[in-house]
């Protein structure tokens, strides 16, 4: 079975003012989201095949609760103080209805998901120096959303699809089995370096251009 990138998140400041830099650059913002019981909210940018999410804490006590604690979202959102990875990667099946899993995981059923719908969290979730990895078996491409879920997909910057992702992290120890599995995907590269950094590559980088959003966000775009 093959898997596809569904979305990727970066932890941001309260209410994610950093998203305004992406808007100024030429991205169209979609609807935001709040995660009741999880203690987080987000601002979102949708492309034809994937989504970029800026995530922040709105309730620290919820994020520290027993059910949420294994996600280590509190530490991730406080990454500038904790040195945790500020990134999360969500995969979906390449073809609807496939039932395999990309890594060993556990079922997560937060209250904000529809009844009888779960996400699956990699067993590496407590390793805060690695990105949070999770799997959404019911998800589909963003350009295949139903009418009631549709989001803006057109951007002044002209981007259509995220064609690859590279995450750099300052981790010297061996990667977890889940992260090694992710790193075998053609669309995703995980590497070691001096800092936490997310690089998104759009539309096969046909224009040979890039933009750097540091220091506001550990993020680069290539197109």
Structure description:
By secondary structure, the chain is mainly β. The chain has 5 helices and 13 strands. It has helices at 19-25, 60-63, 73-77, 79-82, 177-183; strands spanning 3-11, 33-35, 40-46, 51-57, 87-93, 105-108, 119-122, 132-135, 162-169, 188-192, 197-202, 210-212, 219-222. It is globular. The mean pLDDT is 95.
Give a short synopsis of this structure.
The chain has helices at 19-25, 60-63, 73-77, 79-82, 177-183; strands at residues 3-11, 33-35, 40-46, 51-57, 87-93, 105-108, 119-122, 132-135, 162-169, 188-192, 197-202, 210-212, 219-222. By secondary structure, the chain is mainly β. The chain has one domain (3-146, 160-222): 2,3-Dihydroxybiphenyl 1,2-Dioxygenase, domain 1 (Roll).
Key traits:
12% helix; 223 residues; eight-stranded mixed beta sheet; 2,3-Dihydroxybiphenyl 1,2-Dioxygenase, domain 1; five-stranded mixed beta sheet; 5 helices; globular; mainly beta
Helices, by number, come to 5
CATH topology: 2,3-Dihydroxybiphenyl 1,2-Dioxygenase, domain 1
Listing every helix as H and every strand as E from the N terminus to the C terminus, the arrangement reads: EHEEEHHHEEEEEHEEEE
- Total strands: the figure is 13
- What count of domains describes the coordinates? 1
Radius of gyration of CA atoms, rounded to a whole number: 16 Å
Biggest sheet details:
8 strands, mixed
Share in β-strands: 25-35%
Structural class: mainly beta
CATH class: Alpha Beta
- Note poorly predicted spans: none
**What separation lies between the terminal Cα atoms?**
29 Å
User: Given the C-alpha coordinates, what overall shape results?
Assistant: globular
Strand arrangement, major sheet: 2-3-4-1-5-8-7-6
CATH architecture, please?
Roll
Share in helix: 10-25%
């Amino acid at each position: 079975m093959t898997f596809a990138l569904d979305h990727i998140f970066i932890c941001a400041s309260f209410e994610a003012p950093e998203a305004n830099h992406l808007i100024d650059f030429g991205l169209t913002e979609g609807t935001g989201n709040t995660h009741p019981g999880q203690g987080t909210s987000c601002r979102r940018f949708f492309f034809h095949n994937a989504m970029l999410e800026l995530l922040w804490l709105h309730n620290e006590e919820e994020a520290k609760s027993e059910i949420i604690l294994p996600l280590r979202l509190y530490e991730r959102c406080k990454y500038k103080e904790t040195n945790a990875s500020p990134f999360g990667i969500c995969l979906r099946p390449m073809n609807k209805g496939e039932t395999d899993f990309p890594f060993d995981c556990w079922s997560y059923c937060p209250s904000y998901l529809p009844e009888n719908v779960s996400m699956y969290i990699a067993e590496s979730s407590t390793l805060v120096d690695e990105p949070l990895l999770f799997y959404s078996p019911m998800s589909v491409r963003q350009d295949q959303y139903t009418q009631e879920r549709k989001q803006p997909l057109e951007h002044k910057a002209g981007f259509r699809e995220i064609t690859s992702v590279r995450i750099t992290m300052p981790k010297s120890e061996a990667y977890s089995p889940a992260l090694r599995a992710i790193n075998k995907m053609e669309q995703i590269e995980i590497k070691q370096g001096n800092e936490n950094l997310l690089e998104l590559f759009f539309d096969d980088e046909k224009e040979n251009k890039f933009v750097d959003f540091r220091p506001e966000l550990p993020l680069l775009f290539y197109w």
